[in-house]
Amino acid sequence: MADWGGITPWGRASACSIATLSQRLGQGFAWTWRITTLTITGFGKILSGAIPLKDSLAGPLGIAREIGRQADQGWRNVVFFAAGISINLAVLNLLPIPVLDGGHLLFFVFEIVLGKPLSVRAREMAQRCWFTCPSSVNVASSLKRCENVLQ
Question: For the residues 45-63, what does the mean pLDDT come to?
Answer without folding.
Answer: 80
